[in-house]
User: What shape does this take?
Amino acid sequence: MYKVSWLIRSLAVSLILMTSAQVANAEECTATSNEYPTPVIADYVLGCMAANGNSFESLHQCSCSIDFIRERLSFADYEKISTVMQVQQDRGQRGVFYRDSTWAKERVDALLEIQSESTLRCF
Assistant: This one.
C-alpha cells in the first residue's frame, strides 16, 4: 500500500512539473515575441493538410497559409478567436452566447477574412 501511494504521489508531482514546464515554455515563447508555439503551427498545418489532401504540395501551401496568418494576427488574438470558434460549437446557452454576440462574430469574421486572403495567396 505504501509503495502504491508513493508511486501515485511521484507520478502526480512529475505531471505537475512537466505541465508547469510546458506552460512556462509557451509563456516564454509568446512573452518574448509574437511567435506562435510550434504545436499550434503543427496543428494548423496538419488540419489544413487533412482538408486539402495530404501531399507535399499541400504541406507547402498550408505552411504558407499559417505564415500569412502569423504576419497579420498576434498569437494572443489568434488564440482568443480559436477559443471563440470552438465554444460556438457548444450546445446550449454557452454556445448561443458566443454564436449570437456581435463581438464574437466580428473576431471570427476577421480571422476568416485573413484565412481567405491566405488561400488566395498560397493555394
Summary: The two ends are 60 Å apart (CA to CA). The helical segments are 2-32, 38-52, 56-72, 75-88, 93-100, 102-122. The chain is about 85% helix and 0% strand.
